What does this fold into?
Amino acid sequence: MAIAGERTGALGLGDSSSDHRFMRPGPHSPLRLARPSRGLAAAERFWVDGLGLDVLWRAEPDDNAGHALLMVGWPQASWHLELVDDPDGATPPAPSDEDLLVLYLGGRLDDDLEQRLVGAGGTRVQARNPYW
It folds into this structure.
């Protein structure tokens, strides 16, 4: 897990839970979910063309120490998804029934949206758990 932040004040060795000099995440703290991608173009097609997220930022390999990046999300949301290009597959795949990113859309999935997601490379799968 990576934690990004700026520390101010002196660093202590004791329990920081009572030390108000340390930052703590809150309900509106920005959240970045970073994932490797073996195909940024296909990922962009799914997340942007399919789900309707916006491209918030993009970097080519020359811009970012050899890694192409794509950040997608909704501009006013406190989260975004960072996809890091991994065309050679240096990161081992970790797909499993539990390796999911679940977006709650507030109701039943619209049939048109489902077709757009499938057309953008998505696959409809049966949820392993009834609460998804």
Remarks:
- The two ends are 24 Å apart (CA to CA).
- The first strand starts at residue 31 and ends at 37.
- Residues 6-16 have pLDDT under 50 and may be disordered.
- The CA atoms of residues 28 and 78 lie 6 Å apart.
